[in-house]
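so the lab meeting is tmrw and i was supposed to have these ready like two days ago... anyway. pasting both below. for each one the top line is the aa sequence and the line under it is the structure tokens. i havent really looked at them closely yet so no promises
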Amino acid sequence: MSTATTAGSWPSMSTTPPNLSGLGSQHVTWGVPAGGGKSGYIFQGGTVPVKTDGSEFTLGTYTHENFPIQGMPQPQFDVDLSVRVAFEDGTEADFAFRFHHNETPNDGPAPEDIVNLPMFVSPQTVTIDGDEYGVVISGFKQGGQVVQTFISPENGSNSAEVVAMFARAGKPDIVLTAVSHKGQVKYTQADEYVEIVNRGTVAGNISGWVLGADDAGQDYTFPPGTVLQPGQRIRIYTNQVHPQWGGFTYGSNRPIWNDKGDKAVLRDTAQNAVSELGYGNRATTP
């Protein structure tokens, strides 16, 4: 593990909204206020521990100042973020990302603005200990969950950590990251799930791969065309379908994951164990 210092700025936007100011700084604002302040983005970096094994770290804190503004000529647009990472050994590198902004109407059933990340992987790389790495953004961390869509309520400043990882350039890295074995649905625990993430810098095809538990009949085979983009997370539920997490389900009317302990194993089409994750009395030894 090493320490790095991050700092960010917003160098450009895909449109020029009214009252635009702050491009090139960590605080960009736009819009004609309709009773309050302008809308805007802030990126606050800091000193963070980083690893090059795919472990996630906080790249910085993103804040959306979401105040009512007059109607925008173009309500959806992109805002570019540039983050400089300075390592302990003096190495510095700049990484670029893009945020997609939806400036929704201030009234109606869903006035919250929506921000997502159409570009998870930095085009730039950095050489660390002789190996080339890119930065992959996992998403926004809100309420303990890492999500790829940021929902920003109206009339306030809403913040989330931007979670990222250093990943070897040029290859996928598919790993199990969580087993939620304590479902809230009585008896069937239909809402149990296993989470998988691609922490590599290129897409990974997991068609035909198998997610298994210890007992017979607890295998899930991924259908043809299952491709995980860099930074993408999916979940395989016991008996629920959640399209925002890929829509994968065992379709089992009984629990899959033992509450006392179990081990999830992800195997490729050659039956090689690509990733394993145990918990409880089957906890994986670090």
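ok protien two:
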Amino acid sequence: MPNEPICMYTWISEKLMGDQTSYIVATLDEERASSYWGVDISSGHIRLIENEEQFIYRSEDIVPVAELNSPQGAKLKRLFDHAAKAVWSEDLDSRRLLHVFYFNITKIGNSEAIGRTYFYNNHLYIVLTIKDYAGLNAFSHELGHALYFSNPKLMGNDPVTGTKHHNKDGNLMYPSISLTELLQLEQQQLNAVNNSYLVNPDALSGFPLSNINTSIE
């Protein structure tokens, strides 16, 4: 059976969207990621309204998963919990809906990272910044982590190395990647997509509910 499209909600800072009804960088991200991983992506764009302090996200608010229950992580946790209640359709398990957030920030937390993937309360989230070239390889890299997290055979690890990242420079899943150059994926990495419940609903039956929460850049 052919893989299904990845169902995705893309939440975009209104400061980035301006008067647009969609955000072009998000569209370019999806096209690049689709080409890398050989997947189709069905995405709806949602404007993140930032008219009150509680809805304005700054770099320091984007904490690792271990800090989501801290006072500093309250904003991000509230957003994740709100997103998890979103329903794509009556037939879609909410765990198969990937949420992607574009914040009006230039780095994530105290790191220099421009992207981070979360597996939190059995749902997947990707956070991205607006640093230059974020519309090229950054999302594609983070989508790889989401595909690995949603594969019950991998549990977040790269299928080639058995660790969170690939060990060869020039591979899309290497820890530090070029944002502009065309990178590589091995066939074993591409094959792993078939066992991700983001594209294969049958894989969800082999993925029990978990108390494990983790994040990776």
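from a quick look at the 2nd one: The mean pLDDT is 92. Strands lie at 6-13, 41-48, 97-102, 115-120, 123-128, 214-216. will dig more after coffe
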